Amino acid sequence: MSVRVLVVDDQDLFRAGFGxxxxxxxxxxxxxxxxxxxxxxxKTRALAPDVVVMDVRMPRLDGVAATRRICTETSAKVLVLTxxxxxxxxxxxxxxxxxxxLLKDARRDELADAVRVVAAGEALLAPTVTRRLxxxxxERGRPxxxxxxxxxxxxxxxxxxxxxxxxxxxxxxxxxxxxxxxxTVKTHVSSVLSKLGLRDRxxxxxxxYEAGLVKPGAAAATG
Length: 223
Description:
Elements: E1 3-8, H1 12-23, E2 28-34, H2 37-47, E3 51-54, H3 63-73, E4 77-82, H4 90-96, E5 100-103, H5 108-119, E6 124-125, H6 127-139, H7 145-148, H8 156-166, H9 171-178, H10 182-196, H11 201-210, H12 216-219
Parallel strand pairs: 1-2, 1-3, 3-4, 4-5, 5-6
Helix pairs in contact: 2-3, 3-4, 8-9, 8-10, 8-11, 9-10
């Protein structure tokens, strides 16, 4: 079944270009476009896309606010496209529920793959975005006790899995690190998300740092 995509950007050329790239893929279908956050919300409700490719800086309603409402009010997943050197909203967008971040200068095959990854419920963060996220979490200071105590809800193996997710590892890499099967990793990831009430792997990464399970300095080199 084809992945349904809504492309959101306030610049016509970017919107048209991304749409053409994605619609050319046999397994992706662009069902609509939007030029700002409010229109993105309206189109998401009307067209029911699987993935919303979201710009950050837009008139009327920015991409962070739109992402928060889309992730709260619909089942669509959000992939944020950003000009990383000028956007300062990485952390807030992740907290809002974005399933991934990708730079606007990514190759066309990277964009298509990113949509597939987010549609499948996997986390996707460009390495530079991962470093930015870690830096932001470091600046925010000490772990939050109310989150740290919730780690007790996880088994030891689930905590190990969450640590590896926080390093940005894929299921295959987590499996290799913990010497278990990918199927086992998927089971642990699903259990972690369910027990902690998290939407996806990206939110799990944020939780791991905020709860103090992972110290930012220890993972920065891997980002």
